[in-house]
Amino acid sequence: MATGAAAALAGGVTTVCEMPNTIPPTVTVAALADKVRRSEKLTVNSEKIKMDLRFFFGATEPAHLITLQELWTGSSAELQRLKKRCCGLKLYLDHSTGNQKAPGGVIDDAFSMCAELNIPVVCHCEDPDINQAARTKYQNPKDIADHSRMRPPESEEKAMKDALALAKKYGTHLHIAHLSTKGGLDLIRAAKKAGVTVTCEVAPHHLFLTVDDYAALGTLAKMNPPLRTREHQEALWEGIADGTVDCISTDHAPHTLEEKNCDNPLKAPSGVPGTETMLPLLLSAAAGHWPHVASEKIFSILNSPPAEALAKVGQFSISDIARLCFENPNRIFNLGKQGIVEGATADFILVDPKKEWVIKGKELHSKCGWTPYEGWKVAGRVVRVVQS
Prior knowledge:
Layout: H1 2-10, E1 15-18, H2 29-39, E2 43-44, E3 47-48, E4 52-58, H3 62-73, H4 77-83, E5 86-92, H5 104-117, E6 121-124, H6 128-135, H7 146-150, H8 153-170, E7 174-176, H9 182-193, E8 198-202, H10 204-208, H11 214-217, H12 230-241, E9 247-248, H13 257-260, H14 278-286, E10 292-293, H15 307-313, H16 318-332, E11 347-358, E12 376-387
Parallel strand pairs: 1-4, 4-5, 5-6, 6-7, 7-8, 8-9
Antiparallel strand pairs: 2-3, 10-12, 11-12
Helix pairs in contact: 3-4, 3-5, 8-9, 12-15
């Protein structure tokens, strides 16, 4: 938690909303209280780290929903204190890291309860039946690209349809995490036009990487939902340009290199680190410079930017970054941030948008010590974090 917070601050992120798929999972008041306690005493090399850490609650059984309800409605000072640090409920519609897949009955009850209590529901959208069927067809342990085939776009789209139907039925605020497909984006557009209360986010790895990058990165490009084709990548940028996408969020998952470099690539843990590199990547795009590796001899395939996507991005700017990474998340998850206004508590960053540098995993602050963007040349770096 401490090194993750240090990495976030180095990347210009001063507020982190952490997911519940940890050990132990955040499905009890005790687990939440322990995380809050730890977050208030963060140090790296004896230096105190100031980070606003919020936590999503998880649910895989009815008892977890009852606990969340007690947390949200309890009148004790302790429950009210913990509630302020809880930003919503996270549901996994299929297994991902942490194996927190929620059964159907729990999912339905969660949407109903969260609508009544005005709790945002964040969904990891993958359909278990479609994924299982795909797994029977693609199991080549020598081909890491099978990971994307085992979790196809249709899986995300089917799960999103189910989640949107529940949001419409109960009037729940649904937030789609790490949207990765063109079809999913179309579903969001249609749902918003139909008046469904839905928001969504995309992750930097889906914006800057595609299935083509498996050849160079191997398991370092393995995450859930998986990398997609160039067509889907371009659609996500278009969704940012037309306002369909509400947020850009890292889905930071810092597995170790030892874990990633296992004998069977398809069994390597899914997830990539990303808090420290998100802003430099976005600042590069805002400056009109597609980030790329410094040495063409290393990962030549990554040097080919999606020209069509960049054309669709058009006027992507620093103000878009503020909207997608601050204004909208602040509103969606009721974080209570005031922004840069007179009289507000200082909590902002200063960046040099023209500073060019090369991303190197060993120089980043995350304890895992690696990045899928190793050797990428970016424009834009955090100069100072100002907090009071």
